[in-house]
Amino acid sequence: MKYLLPVICIFLLLSTQALSQQVFDDFEGNGTINSYYGDNCGANANFANPHPTGINTSATVLDYHDTGGQYANVRFDIPVKFDLSENHTFTFKIYVPSDQITGSQNNQISLKLQNGDLGEPWTTQCEIIKSIVTDEWQTVSFDFLNDPFVNFDPNSPAPTSRDDFSRVLFQVNGENNNDQVRAYIDDFEYDGTIDVGSGPTFNVLVWADECDGNGAIDTDKWFHQTILPNGFSWFNGELQHYTDRTDNAFLEDGYMTIRAKKETYSDQGHTKDYTSARLNSKFAFKYGKVDIRAKLPEGEGTWPAFWMLGKNITENGAYWEQLGFGTTGWPQCGEIDIMEHWGTNQNYVQSATHTPSSFGNTVNHGGQVISTASSDFHVYTLEWTAEKLRFLVDGNLHFTYDPADKNADTWPFDDEMYILLNTAIQSSISPGFTYSDMVIDYIRVYEEGPAVSTSELNAKDKALKYYPNPVRDVLNVELDAVNQKVDFNIFDQKGAMLLSGQKELSNGMLYLDNLDALAKGAYVVSIRTKTDVFKLRFYKL
């Protein structure tokens, strides 16, 4: 695997420290905002500055293009909530060309704050309006402590006393009109920071597919889900048959490819014009971190996804349902969408949750723009704990699901779930579509599990090191011990002892070189020295 490098796993007892992040964008490739979205309005965050004059000669700006929508605006979300109690000012530059305005509206710019987690976010809105001039760059500031503001709900408290704002909107020349306006925005900045947290420490690899080899996918790890769940089609009006052929899912040169194709294909008494693949993992788990390094398909009408469902789902043809675990319908079983991408909105990737409290067109979602989603590999991450779900791309957080009241309606995420990979075809598929590939480098699942001695750490507080993990043949373990004989036992996940023996340390190193006999999977090794017992988890490739 060309991207699999030996990993030295150093396990420390760490305290969690909060991480702060700025909220800014210069539209030159620097910034932390990556989820711009136009509501009845064009939003292009990579637009050549058409007026490089005055106070703004930068090359790239945000193009705001209201083509007549009654409530047109451009917005973005942050993954947590603003705290406006100390820092409460938003600033940016704007240019409005007079020849791009219709109607007789006041020349103005509104900045609105909302709770983007809600189905009707405007009900939480707080707005500041500033007058602007046309045909020149100007800097405008919105101070939610000192500027006059308007609450949509007059009973809402002052914005600096609230903790529910997670969405920022720009609106030029007001709403409730069908006039057109074009504007250019640059150098957005919030004068504070947001606390995105450091996230938990998931440091033990418990399952992985490195996508090595050529030919068919690893059926010890994946199940081809092909049965039409309602007898004639897949859900959401999808047009494809899922197959178990290597035409649609295969390994090649260290990658897994899921290929959606235009072809006439008959199965289960129904003929369809497209084929693809839908894979269920034969591994289920509760809490952990999922990393998927992938390059996405493209084309209008393609719909690739990495996602998870409750192991207990009652879906005809699903792997775990066929094994007898199906007891709960959807959405009560819970669904976690690690990544979805629609070819009609190229390069915008979204994460979401579906629960009894919000499903289908769920309000629980967030995303970001990845300009090279279909041309380069990126790492899509889910961090799942008993408290929250965090979604990231290349380490950049874009959505956190953390309902205040966790119950069966809002949080069906305390049971085992499994991973699904697929590319669906929507009715909007381009007539010229032939095929497109989702290419996956690896899928890795981690859990929390520091490796420490069963006795207290010594005064030097040294942590145990072992590598590589995952391992193919030899596991190297560094022990803070003099040369001596040590005993070891290797157990599978069910606790059955598979290997045992005694090894001589060499300069404090233990070499477990008899791992070829183990099948792929997760294991625990217990190591006993004269003074300590250590337990380590590792993954065998």
Protein model, in words:
The protein is 1% helix and 45% strand. The protein has one helix spanning 319-322, and strands at residues 9-10, 20-25, 37-39, 42-48, 60-66, 73-77, 89-95, 108-114, 126-131, 138-143, 150-151, 167-172, 181-195, 204-209, 222-224, 240-242, 249-252, 255-267, 270-276, 278-285, 288-295, 302-310, 335-341, 348-354, 365-369, 378-384, 389-393, 396-401, 417-425, 435-447, 465-467, 475-478, 485-491, 497-504, 509-512, 521-528, 533-540. The strands form 6 sheets. Strands 14, 16, 17, 18, 19, 21, 26, 27, 28 and 30 form a 10-stranded mixed beta sheet that branches. A 7-stranded antiparallel beta sheet has the order 15-20-29-22-23-24-25, with no helix packed on it. Strands 2, 4, 5, 7, 10 and 13 form a 6-stranded antiparallel beta sheet that branches. A hairpin with a 4-residue loop joins strand 36 and strand 37 (533-540).
